[in-house]
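To: structure desk
From: M.T.
Subject: fold request, one chain
Message: Could you run this one when you get a chance? Sequence is below, nothing fancy, just the single chain.
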Amino acid sequence: MDERYSGTNAGVETFKPGPEQGVPRDVQVSFVLWLTAVAAGVFETALAIIEALSGDLGLDVGVIVGVGLRLIIFAAAIYVASRMRLGKNWARFVLAIGLGVIGTLSIVIGPVSWLAEGHPIGEFLVNAGPMTLLFASSRIAHLGAVFAAVVFMFLPAANAYFRAARPATRRTPK
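Reply: Done. Structure tokens follow.
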């Protein structure tokens, strides 16, 4: 019997997170950074729910739909990141375009518009309460994780991994 399945920790080894055999460090780091970005997004969602519950309106339909949509996106991001970790090149491009470009634009459009209207960053800092500062800090961490994850997915070792993972029929010229 396999030692992993014996003793008091029977089956526990199967579920331990860790590097997959043969997956380059750069791809592993990218995977962890995608999970970090999702965790930041979950934290931001929790803050938005707390904010909504503390307001006069409570959880209205818009907030509920927004939370539901974000949860679907988070689940999809985790799934696609897990496929990327397994060497699926399509997943790498879905993450880069879907979350790296479109997701980033959805996060930064509000703050960039606010700054473009002529508001100085100092005004934001002076008027921001603890909840707003927590949210902004999480957004900065979120964006940093996304940018770094995209970079790590396209480093030379990652590129070689994704090339090697392609089916043999696609690699050979006809």
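Reply (cont.): Residues 24-160 form one domain. Let me know if you need anything else for the meeting.
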